[in-house]
Amino acid sequence: MLHSMSTTLQSASDRSAADVNEEIRALWLRSGGILNSEQRLTYQQLVAEWAAVSPHPGDEA
């Protein structure tokens, strides 16, 4: 389910990678595939958050 994006980014420990990925997809959908400078900054922050919470190979020990 796509939802509107919050104006503040939650800390990485608050959301799963799937939740952050859903927000990234919603941002692209709302923008029509073209991000303005504010949306681009939000996208970069979301990608960094997604990378921080995504499982990494070798972490499954």
UniProtKB/TrEMBL annotation:
<protein>
    <submittedName>
        <fullName>Uncharacterized protein</fullName>
    </submittedName>
</protein>
